[in-house]
Amino acid sequence: MSVNDSSNTSRTDWAALEAMTDEEIDYSDIPPLTDEFFEKAVLRVPAAQADNLIQLDPEVMAWFRSQGAEYRSLINSVLRRYMENISGRQSV
Q1: Count of domains forming the chain
Q2: Quick one: CA torsion of 50, 52, 56, 58, rounded to 10 degrees?
């Protein structure tokens, strides 16, 4: 894609598209997604998002999820408190 491509205005009638139901959308030109497709598929995460991914043990993740819908905020809070505690010890 060139620089000029990103400055073009879309000619899509977004209001009409939003008003359509799933049944009204013509998918006939899209090939079906087969098991073979998914076997070969590769997940690509943009670099900016990849920096924010961490791998937690399944038991740890299950425990945090069991704490409620805001488990991601809880994980962040626990890590922040740990970070602040360690930082406080190092400056003494």
Answers
A1: 1
A2: -70
Ramachandran angles phi, psi of 34, nearest 5°: -95, 170
Residue 30 lies in a domain: yes
**Beta carbons of 64 and 71 less than 8 angstroms apart:** yes
Instruction: State the pLDDT at residue 5.
Output: 58
Residue 6 included in any domain:
no
pLDDT for 4 equals 55
Token pair belonging to 12: 């899509």
Task: Tell me what the pLDDT averaged over the chain comes to.
Answer: 87
The pTM for the full model equals 0.45
For residue 61, tell me if it sits in a domain.
yes
Print the domain residue range for 55: 11-90
d(CA 61, CA 72): 10
Q: What is the pLDDT of residue 78?
A: 97
